[in-house]
Amino acid sequence: MPLTSNLHVGICGGGMGGLAAAIAAARAGAKVTLLEAARELGEIGAGIQVFPNASRLLIRWGVDKLIGDNLIVVDEANTWAADGSLIAHFDPKEGLKQSGFPHWLVRRDHLHAGLTESARHHGVNLVVGSRVNRLDCTQEGVKVTTTQGTAYEFDLLIGSDGIKSFIRQTLFPGVVPQAASTVAAFRGILSYDEVFNKVPEARHLLRNTMDAWIGPNGYILLYPLSAGAELNVVTLFQMDHIVERPEDMNIDEFRHLYKDWNPTARKILELVNYTQKWPLLVLPPMKTWSNEFKNVVLLGDAAHAMQNHMAQGAATAMEDGAFLGTVIGDAIRGNITLSEAIDLYEKQRIPRVWVKQQASFISGTLNMATGEEATRRNRASAPEVNAWSCNVVRPSDALPPTYRSWQMYCTPTSVPGILYYDAEGDADNAVCEYLQSTTRMDDATLVTDGLWKRWWGVIDNNGM
């Protein structure tokens, strides 16, 4: 079973998911060309949370070493009511023990730079200033053309070009992003020096911690970035209308949303200059992410944009890329066809990301609950606050084994199916299951032919 090393994978879009796919496919043995519309590879936006399901990939690929001290682990994750009372508390060291991998905080551009450098180290051809505006597919392969008239041909094209995806619009013109709620987001970064100089009382609160104030119809999230030099500020609020596109907003109108909230939090918000509210767009579930020939496939926001209440958008795109790279590797080694690899990707990933989209919605609803629902929520997390306030060495030991926090975004045991998830392991298992289900079982060894061939192929290829 000779190794086929001439599979050429094209990637349209150089965001987190596209870079993850590029790294994973290159590690699998493919020739990879990534086409990015912008003239420079980079990211906009503020901070991003890297949960265990994504940090395990960065560690395996060596990206964590490239980013270094700009990956931050906080000492506490605190959730406060709008009036300032503590209603949920979590120790990230417990999360590391539970999941086996860290929960990091990082600037988006630092994470993107680490992924970009890793892609280069893995031999990916990164081509900037190459906006794709034409896609032609046949059974034999894929051809794309850029606005400059340059053409590229691939055996497989991965569309990772974001929520406004040209590849998705070409394959599925009827699938468009939707504003599924009235929630709008506001994002920015402040320096800790400015915060502590102008809001000195914040020193007692912001101690390498991640802090969320949640209240009726909105929440505020603060956490450190850039080796502790910067403070990420994310706020969300339910507006009086559905926000379908970025809208200008008067700064006084923004501050009025939080007029009755904790004074320290309000003073911090007075330091930001928000002039735009951003919609939280989602894509409806799709039955397929690929074309009829199974040689063009979508990932990330191009396939499944979701609300950000679980901070899983970029992580899910990176999972997609890691999964795709793994099954592509089995296609390269001849264990399955490329078409079968794409089928496995869709079969496993489509239902999984739909669950994540729902979990993100639920997380936001819990954080922005009002009235009796908010009272029930706060009462449910009282045990973890009591355990921490009583100075229990390990607060988790003081909780009953059935306890689950409703604060899904920072507590891995709340949604282990999401935060413990290993995309590469899942992909490898999917291939094994497929080979078992489609090949004959040997009567003597009780092992299916497909698995025999898979491992004899490894032996033959290693022996060159």
Automatic annotation (TrEMBL):
Q: Which residues form the FAD-binding domain?
A: 8-354
Per its UniProt entry, which superkingdom is the organism in? Eukaryota
Entry's Gene Ontology molecular function annotations: FAD binding; monooxygenase activity
Cross-referenced Pfam families: FAD_binding_3 (PF01494)
Q: Write down the InterPro entries for this protein, in alphabetical order.
A: FAD-bd (IPR002938), FAD-dep_Monooxygenase_BioMet (IPR050493), FAD/NAD-bd_sf (IPR036188)
Alphabetic keyword roster = FAD, Flavoprotein, Monooxygenase, Oxidoreductase
Family matches, as PANTHER family: MONOOXYGENASE (PTHR13789), PUTATIVE (AFU_ORTHOLOGUE AFUA_2G01950)-RELATED (PTHR13789:SF147)
Name the family.
Answer: Belongs to the paxM FAD-dependent monooxygenase family.
Q: What is this protein called?
A: FAD-binding domain-containing protein
Species name: Exophiala spinifera
